[in-house]
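Severity: low
Component: inverse-folding endpoint
Summary: output formatting inconsistent between runs
Steps to reproduce: submit the following structure tokens with default settings.
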């Protein structure tokens, strides 16, 4: 039977969210179709994904570099957090299939408007932004 517990609270009663939050992950946003409705990976699959990610991050990049570029990359490797697999097949947990739901008809209609087209062009740097509304957070 699961034990009940309460989340730590601040002095004023809100949930205490202090601390370091590491969100580095190689888990995809949407679940790949070959996983179906499977939510979790086995320990062996997690280990294999982590090893493949680590190997890809070093060997593929280094194979075509000059010595100077390789040394520069080695220094920068320290700062890059490529993340690891946490055992989930996707970051999306709802709906059950782990995939983004289809866009609504209203969203499809809006994306065809001039405002939506200009906003997308500003986000991609093709036109200047006119204000903070045109920029992502």
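Observed output (run 2 of 3):
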């Amino acid at each position: 039977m699961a034990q009940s517990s309460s989340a730590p609270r601040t002095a004023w009663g809100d949930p205490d969210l202090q601390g370091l939050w590491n969100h580095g992950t190689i888990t995809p946003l949407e679940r790949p179709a070959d996983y179906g409705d499977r939510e979790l990976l086995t320990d062996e699959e997690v280990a294999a994904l982590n090893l493949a990610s680590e190997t890809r991050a070093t060997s593929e990049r280094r194979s075509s570099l000059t010595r100077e570029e390789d040394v520069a990359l080695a220094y920068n490797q320290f700062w890059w957090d490529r993340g690891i697999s946490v055992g989930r097949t996707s970051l999306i947990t709802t709906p059950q299939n782990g995939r983004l739901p289809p866009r609504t008809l209203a969203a499809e209609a809006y994306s065809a408007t001039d405002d939506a087209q200009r906003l997308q062009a500003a986000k991609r740097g093709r036109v200047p932004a006119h204000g903070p509304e045109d920029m992502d957070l």
